[in-house]
Structure formats: structure tokens, C-alpha cells
Amino acid sequence: MADGVLEEYRKEVERIFGEDLSSLLLYGSHASVDPAPGKEISVLVVVRILRKEALDLFQRATRRFARQGIPPPPIV
Q1: CA–CA separation, 44 vs 19, rounded Å?
Q2: What 8-state DSSP symbol labels residue 11?
Q3: Which partner for 17 in 4, 21, 27, 52 could form a disulfide, CB atoms 3.0-4.6 Å apart?
Q4: Which is nearest to 54 in space by CA: 25, 14, 5?
Q5: At what angle do helices 52-66 and 2-17 cross, to 10 degrees?
Q6: Other C-beta atoms lying within 10 Å of the C-beta of residue 62
Q7: DSSP secondary structure letter of residue 40
Q8: Cα separation of the two ends of the chain
Q9: What confidence score (pLDDT) does residue 38 get?
Q10: Taking the model in full, what pTM does it have?
Q11: Per-residue confidence band for 1, with pLDDT thresholds at 50, 70 and 90
């Protein structure tokens, strides 16, 4: 399940931030070969420029993904 959610999340983050996205990092339990079931999926979003329009879209998307186990991540 996590793989499908992560792929959907990646696509959405790339769509929202576009060229401003510098990096999307997966860390914690799900970054290992054998992730612990039931753990939240930890990600970090790094952008070159954080535009208000993109942040607004991202905040809406994070609410949806939080219900799927990916809490709102830090944005750097």
C-alpha cells in the first residue's frame, strides 16, 4: 500500500512545485528495505522558491495524504 501512496504523493508534489522542487526525501521506517507496518510515512520537501500559490495547493493536498498515512512534511 505504501508504495502506491508514495508514488501518488511524489507525482502530486512534482505537479504542485514543478521546477521549484529541488528534492523530495523519504526518511524513517519507510526508507528501509523492511518498513514497519502502521508507521507514518516521513518525507521532507525541499524547494528553491516557495510560492504562495504552490503552498496553498500543497496544504490542500497534505490534508488528503494525511488520511493515507503521510502527515504534513517539513518544507525547506
Answers
A1: 17
A2: H
A3: 21
A4: 14
A5: 170
A6: 18
A7: P
A8: 27
A9: 65
A10: 0.85
A11: very low
Q: Three-state DSSP class for 71?
A: coil
Helix (H, G, I), strand (E, B), or coil: what is residue 19? helix
The set of residues, in sequence order, having a beta carbon less than 8 Å from that of 51 and lying 6+ positions away, is 20
> Is the pLDDT confidence value at 67 over 80?
yes
- CA-CA distance, 52 to 48, in Å (whole number)? 13
Of 54, 52, 73, 56, which is closest to residue 9 (Cα–Cα)? Answer: 73
Cα–Cα nearest to 73, from 43, 39, 50, 47: 43
Distance CA 12, CA 10 (A): 5
Radius of gyration of the chain (CA): 12
